[in-house]
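hiii so um. not sure if this is the right channel but i have a protein structure encoded as tokens and i wanna go backwards to a sequence. like what aa goes where. can anyone help
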């Protein structure tokens, strides 16, 4: 009999991927391993079998099917591609032994917030690639770092699928966290939103996300995302004309090592003194991609101007509305003169994000990077 491992790696069989994930079954607090879900969904759609050290991401409320399954007959060494979740390191796990000696390709996922990134440790140079969200120009990274994005998952696509004939003429601007606000959000609340309100009403109400939904599937997603999934939020999002997706901190260009004490002191000083720069860290978010997927006119800073880097950049005023905070009046004036641009940008941004950052497109981008062909 041919073993499962032999079938996964034998002649005529597709290359396979192996994920190191944090166990979530039977845990009260669940880490949402978003980048894992997006890649596993896309890789499987492209015909790449995916395995893991544990069962992860239940597909039904009864928890009988999982996106990633653990097969004792298949080890990481049997797979062409090994991917390690960022939560693996955030929760204190040691570097998997296979990293640095695998004959295939090893990839670390990194969506960690803040400045003192674990992925800056020299041990991460053993990975072939580190996929870094929040990628920031004029910032020191390792030579194996690659710009990445939160992107979209099947759950987000399903939750934002409904379309409405007429959207509410309002800007949704309800940050998920009210404590420890980002310096960019503080600046936007102080300077941009009052000016924006003269053009479009602001909806700043927050959902009571700590109470689980009644529907079993919605409740499953609510739990597995660490309470980030809430049906009422998606209903508001898909019905709003625009969404404010600002997030992050103003940082200085010097020093390039943003984890250094000097950089962190300067970052705190900028927040305390309400000073802004033209470089923003921690700027990517689930909300950014949820807004794109929902067809809102996605409003953020002008990404290129503020040093934000994606694998494929959206075009300002075509697929999103990027604000230059030094001249917010220019954007408000244009919106006054061309109010129809809101609906046009929302529709174009939705199509762009779904085509460019859906699970299949994201997984294909990784396969192209590592030189593994799709198998569909």
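sure thing!! here u go:
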């Amino acid at each position: 009999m041919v073993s499962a491992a032999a079938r996964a790696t034998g002649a005529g069989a597709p290359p396979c991927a192996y994920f190191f994930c944090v166990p979530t079954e039977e845990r009260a607090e669940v880490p949402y391993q978003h980048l894992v879900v997006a890649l596993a969904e896309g890789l499987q759609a492209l015909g790449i079998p995916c395995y893991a050290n544990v069962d992860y991401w239940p597909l039904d409320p009864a928890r009988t099917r999982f996106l990633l399954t653990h097969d004792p007959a298949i080890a990481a060494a049997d797979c062409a591609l090994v991917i390690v979740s960022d939560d693996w390191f955030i929760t204190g796990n040691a570097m998997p032994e296979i990293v640095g000696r695998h004959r295939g390709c090893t990839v670390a996922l990194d969506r960690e917030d803040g400045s003192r990134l674990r992925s800056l440790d020299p041990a991460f140079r053993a990975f072939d690639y580190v996929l870094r969200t929040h990628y920031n120009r004029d910032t020191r990274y390792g030579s194996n770092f690659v710009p990445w994005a939160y992107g979209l998952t099947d759950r987000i696509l399903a939750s934002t699928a409904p379309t409405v004939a007429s959207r509410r003429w309002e800007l949704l601007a309800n940050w998920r966290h009210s404590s420890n606000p980002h310096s960019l959000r503080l600046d936007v609340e102080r300077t941009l939103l009052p000016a924006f309100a003269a053009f479009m009403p602001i909806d700043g109400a927050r959902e009571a996300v700590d109470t689980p939904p009644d529907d079993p599937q919605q409740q499953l997603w609510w739990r597995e995302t660490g309470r980030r999934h809430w049906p009422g939020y998606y209903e508001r999002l898909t019905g709003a004309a625009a969404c404010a997706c600002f997030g992050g901190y103003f940082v200085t260009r010097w020093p390039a090592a943003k984890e250094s004490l000097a950089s962190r002191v300067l970052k705190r000083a900028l927040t305390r003194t309400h000073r802004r720069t033209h470089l923003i860290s921690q700027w990517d978010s689930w909300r950014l991609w949820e807004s794109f997927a929902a067809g809102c006119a996605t409003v953020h800073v002008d990404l290129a101007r503020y040093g934000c880097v994606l694998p494929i950049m959206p075009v300002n005023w075509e697929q999103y509305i990027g604000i230059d905070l030094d001249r917010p009046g220019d954007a408000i004036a244009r919106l006054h003169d061309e109010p129809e641009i809101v609906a046009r940008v929302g529709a174009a941004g939705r199509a762009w994000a779904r085509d460019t950052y859906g699970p299949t497109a994201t997984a294909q981008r990784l396969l192209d990077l590592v030189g593994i062909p799709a198998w569909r």
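oh and The CA atoms of residues 148 and 277 lie 23 Å apart.
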